[in-house]
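call fold(seq) -> tokens
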Amino acid sequence: MLLLNLAGGALLTLAGVSALAQVPAITDPITGARPGHEPGVGESLPRSDRAGHILEGSPNMTVANTLPDPGIPEDATPIDYLRAARASLLVGHTGQAQQSLEMAETGALNAPVRSGAAAAAVNDGLIARIKDALQALGRGDNPGSIHMIDLALAR
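ret:
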């Protein structure tokens, strides 16, 4: 009987150690980041499908959530990203819309500007409309954001 109790205790101890080895890493209470995560490598946490961290003075959070991929090719144009943002907003996917708008803004900022003041003004107008759409999204004004996207697409 003593041997049976010792064997049972050993099995329980091994099961407990195994269970402890599978506990996920605790996130940093200040930043919310996983310990040992190298930024830009692999998936980042925390993730969210809701828009956030757009407006200055947002709630006191130090880590912005990773937003969903808009699901369009990397070589997409700013117009492609604007269309994706509009489609995302129509179905209530604000996080995906935010990511699409940010990618549209990045693409517009990085686009080579054709020579001439008129071409530069068109590019500046597009960037301004994208910023306005992001600001509306940050305020929770999805219809206003869609309106700004429509203005940008109509240029």
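The chain has two domains: 1-45, 78-153.
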